[in-house]
Design goal:
Blueprint lengths: L18 E4 L3 H6 L3 H15 L8 E3 L6 E8 L2 E11 L2 E10 L9 H18 L5
Amino acid sequence: MPKLAYNGPVPEELGRPRKLIWLVDSLDRISSFPSAVRQQLGFALYQAQVGQRHESAKMLHGFAERVWQVRADAPSGTYRAAYAAEIGEAVYVLHAFQKKSTSGIATPKRDVELIRQRLQLARRLSGTKGE
């Protein structure tokens, strides 16, 4: 297995990790991904917990709160996880999926709708209001 190297700046102090809350089937889905993908997405979510942003993180537009999507590539395809880090005191993992399309980078509408529904659930669980 190749060694992974981090070439970014070393933070002086990491924030205390925020609680990670897995919504609906997001943990089951990530658990079914290949090991290397689980490691990459797990590290990206840990970075969100300590207030950092993973190099693959991209903001999804069209939501009241900031929703981030991280990506991991494997020989079997591209995998993504969407999360919200600015709702209450936790990081909410909204959805995880394998991108099936081989053309285009857009997140499929079905997955965007699932993310939207789960964002509403995250707001209810945290007691905050939104879109």
